[in-house]
Write a structure and sequence with these properties.
9 helices; 11 strands
Length: 400
């Protein structure tokens, strides 16, 4: 059964690797597109700068072709989406275009550097000096001028668009994963509840019959000690059937001393495990008042002790300890068994997971549900070392 979780783990890793590769390729091609568009914009600005130089350097007389001047002006006027600043050699702003100014004015209208527009353009000029978006224009007799330009709004949007797409895709995947997981969990709950109640129903009739036989055996002169031990086990079967019947419905919770519940659970198991296994109990000297369902809590304890017995393969020791923490009580069940590998510690509470040759892999799953969903506590592997043993810890909130 553990292979199912190995396959799922490898599947998740493969999915993550493929996702990373796809996202990397997507970002690479998007970045290539941005670089191409950036190169095109620089070419346009170079043409714009050349047109500006030609207009300034062309001597207008009767021999000048008006079409040439109109063509050069059209190149300048056609730039409606790339913000540009034109300065002289001393850094004085001569012209601006396509900036969203605080106060709308024509690009050729003079502006006061002390006013909002002037301060805005000077700030833009300072920021553009630290970028490669600068083109030098040789005006010959008029000296040199410099063209500064920003990326267009389209190019800026393309810079952020891939990352927005990735975030949207991740959000979509998380929503789908949550929906599928919730549906799967709901289906599992229905299966567990149905199986538990059907098991309780099927056990009811033979248990009732066995109880009647116990009374008959007593009247037939069978050894009373034997009958008494058999009667304990029959009543135990009745308790187990009652536990199964409680799965799926909210159990009645009573304030109990956790020490007493632990002692009863371990006392029953002491006579039903190998004599080569030592089972010791160390209870907190103070009462631990906890609101719990006694039958279900005993079930969890017995389940953990049985698992510890199986892990030791008939020889070793089990130590059960209770203690009080700030806001909760703790139960530690420590064995000297074969331990649990680190990779399996993440899966031991998953339905169907088991390292045993025979087993359904549902015991720890039900134990986790009983402790966390019904009692509002926690159950986890506190410590485990291969060939040295494992400690399971149960935390239950103390009654106020």
């Amino acid at each position: 059964m553990s292979n199912i979780y190995d396959i799922r783990r490898y599947g998740i890793i493969s999915f993550l690797v493929v996702s990373v590769v796809v996202v990397a390729l997507f970002l690479y091609f998007s970045d290539s597109l941005v670089r191409d568009l950036s190169a095109q914009e620089r070419s346009r600005m170079q043409i714009w700068a050349d047109a500006t130089r030609e207009i300034v350097n062309t001597e207008v007389d009767e021999n000048t072709d008006p079409a040439l001047i109109d063509f050069l002006l059209s190149i300048i006027e056609d730039n409606t989406n790339i913000p540009v600043l034109l300065t002289d050699a001393e850094g004085n702003i001569l012209m601006h275009r396509n900036f969203r100014l605080p106060e709308e004015i024509d690009s050729l209208t003079p502006f006061d550097l002390s006013e909002a527009n002037g301060k805005f353009l000077l700030k833009k000029l300072e920021s553009l000096r630290d970028t490669p978006n600068i083109i030098e224009i040789d005006m010959q007799s008029a000296g040199k001028q410099y063209l500064y330009y920003e990326d267009s709004r389209l190019l800026k949007s393309l810079n952020y668009y891939p990352y927005i797409q990735v975030l949207v895709l991740l959000a979509f995947i998380l929503i789908v994963y949550y929906a599928v997981s919730s549906t799967k969990r709901a289906e599992q709950n229905k299966v567990w509840v149905g199986l538990s109640k059907e098991t309780a129903h099927q056990l009811g009739t033979p248990i009732s019959s066995l109880m009647a036989w116990m009374e008959l055996l007593g009247s037939m002169g069978v050894d009373k000690d034997i009958v008494a031990e058999m009667d304990k086990d029959v009543r135990r079967l009745s308790t187990i059937a009652s536990r199964f019947s409680k799965i799926g419905s909210r159990p009645s919770m009573e304030i109990e001393d956790l020490n007493s519940v632990v002692k009863r659970s371990t006392s029953y198991m002491t006579t039903r495990i190998s004599k080569r296994i030592s089972l010791t109990v160390d209870c907190c000297p103070q009462p631990l008042e906890v609101k719990l369902s006694e039958p279900l809590t005993e079930w969890v304890m017995e389940n953990l002790i049985k698992n510890a017995v199986d892990a030791m393969e008939g020889d070793g020791s089990i130590h059960v300890r209770t203690c009080r923490e700030t806001d909760h009580a703790e139960i530690d069940i420590t064995d000297t068994g074969k331990g649990i590998s680190r990779k399996n510690q993440k899966n031991i509470f998953s339905p169907g997971f088991t390292t045993k040759k025979r087993g359904w892999g549902l015991g720890l799953t039900l134990a986790k549900r009983i402790i966390e969903e019904y009692h509002g506590g926690r159950i986890y592997v506190k410590n485990s070392e291969i060939d040295r043993g494992t400690t399971f810890t149960i935390e239950l909130p103390l009654s106020k």
